[in-house]
Protein 1
Amino acid sequence: MNRISVNQPIVELDGDEMAHTMWTLVRDRLITPHVDVPILRFDLSLPNRERTGDKVTLQAAEAVAEHRVGVKCSTITPDAARAAEYGLSRLWPSPNGTLRNVLNGVIFREPVIIDSVPRLVPGWTKPIVIARHAHADQYKAVNFAVPGAGRLTLTYTPDDGSPATSHDVTTFPECGGVALGMYNYTDSIRDFARACFARGLKLGYPVYFSSKNTVLKAYDGHFKDVFDSVYAEEFRSRYQAAGLFYEHRLIDDMVASALKWEGGYVWACKNYDGDVQSDIVAQGFGSPGLMTSVLTTPDGSIQLTEAAHGTIARHHRRREAGEMTSTNPIATIFAWTRGLAHRAALDRNAALADFTVELERATVGTVEQGTMTADLARLVPTGASTVTTEGFIQAVADRFAAAPAGGKMRRLDGHGSE
Ligand SMILES: NC(=O)c1ccc[n+]([C@@H]2O[C@H](COP(=O)([O-])OP(=O)(O)OC[C@H]3O[C@@H](n4cnc5c(N)ncnc54)[C@H](O)[C@@H]3O)[C@@H](O)[C@H]2O)c1
């Protein structure tokens, strides 16, 4: 069979445990038999991060920045227990955090929708794409316990020598309490807004940004103002031409609306909101095995795709003990197809774009025809046949091989036929 020729490389970031097992199976059985693409491989498994003093993560990030397309397997973010398990010299940082910082990227979480798999929220018939502003706020805040009575102030001292301004926060009574000092940067908010609007345009989705600007008038008000100005100055005309829109909503109103709406939008969340909402949305769509994740730069030109789930350590241990598992590889398959679709869009490679659409269709079709992994079979009322991970990947390969060659959808931008 002729393989599709791709001249420009993609960067592969391999990872750990069960995610690595699925990664290898998907690459070797579904991707490389059909696509002849130069793959620059970086081994981000925890043992290799330890061996290289985590230099491999930086090298991988630089390669993604250079070649603009990366596909990433899930990796362990070590805690004390992992450090003991792997004999680490230190707690290496989260590779995703390093990649996000080097690429100055925003992460979008997007579910794969399969009509025949019931969702916890049945009304969600289209993807809800969650964007989390993964910078500062609570995650870089100074917080401390206040032991007793005293005054709390916040002081800003300008670098230009002009007078400092001080704000009284509260006067604590004898019982003391807790306090928090939190911040964000205008440039970071602006880049986040740009990335969200660029993603909305690419997917053909409207964008909502949620905040609590009625309470945090200056803090969240600034976020809202930045979103408004980026939209007005850089995106409004393109959104109107595409029949799309942008709206700010209060977070409480947005949460309630999201439950009622069918999906089909980008939800730009502040850092903490995104942390919470991405897990609610992942659960609402059924299984972590259906949730993909894309890290993009503010201008959308660089993309790093991955499955949103972790390394699924529990299944890995069962495999090590000689058992087979029925772990869902769909998000891994989509990490590869979405990465290759970006390569196809950059290179205007129609054959590669067709391949990504066809492979996604074969994957979804396999589930719809009744063959699925255990996590999905649990959700389907009747008639599902549960297969192992290998069995599912083979079923997708068979379905793909049997698909008619003609009538393929073109996907040079966005997600084509979905
Ligand atoms: N993007 C990443 O690289 C990433 C993200 C999250 C966690 N992690 C890492 O993964 C490791 C394990 O984390 P965890 O156990 O909290 O999360 P996890 O996502 O690996 O697994 C949690 C549970 O979700 C279910 N699950 C997840 N993916 C599934 C799939 N594809 N098919 C079927 N069931 C699935 C399983 O029941 C599993 O036990 C940790 O070391 C963590 O640091 C990495």
Protein 2
Amino acid sequence: MADQNRRRFMRQGALGLAALPLGAGVLPRTALAQSLPRLDPSSSNARALNYVEKASDASDHPAYEPGQTCANCMFYTADTQGCQLFPQHSVASGGWCQSWTEAG
Ligand code: SF4
């Protein structure tokens, strides 16, 4: 009987340890998404690339084409709402900047 209890304990412990990496992988991403401050469109970095939070606001920019948004840009990371060109900030999924490049 004690042997069975020990086996059950070991099996449950092993399952718990196996689940750890899954939880550990999810938590930092969530924390990161919450910790990235939103890019201020009036900041010098944002203005350098004509970043706007609402893509249609860029309709007068020669490089803009309807349908282009951060969400379908290759530099965008949906999990964190991050942009590789603005690594310290998150960007609006519906935003746009002149470096927009179609996601492959
Ligand atoms: S590079 Fe792409 S994801 Fe980043 S701000 Fe510009 S359009 Fe948005």
